[in-house]
Amino acid sequence: MSDRLAKIIGFLTIFAAWFVYYINFDKGSGFSESKGDWGTFGDFVGGVSNPIITFITMCMLIRSINLQKEANDSLLEQNKNLQVDAERQREIDDLRSFETSFYSLSEVARSEYLSIKLIEHESIYSSAEAVSFAEHSLIEKAKSENLCEVFDYLNKISSFSIYSAVRSFYVLFKLTQDSCPEKYKERYFEICAFTMPVKFLHLVCLCKVFTDWKVVKNLADLGFFDKAGLDVYIQSFEEVKKVASST
Question: Are 142 and 238 within one domain?
Answer without folding.
Answer: yes
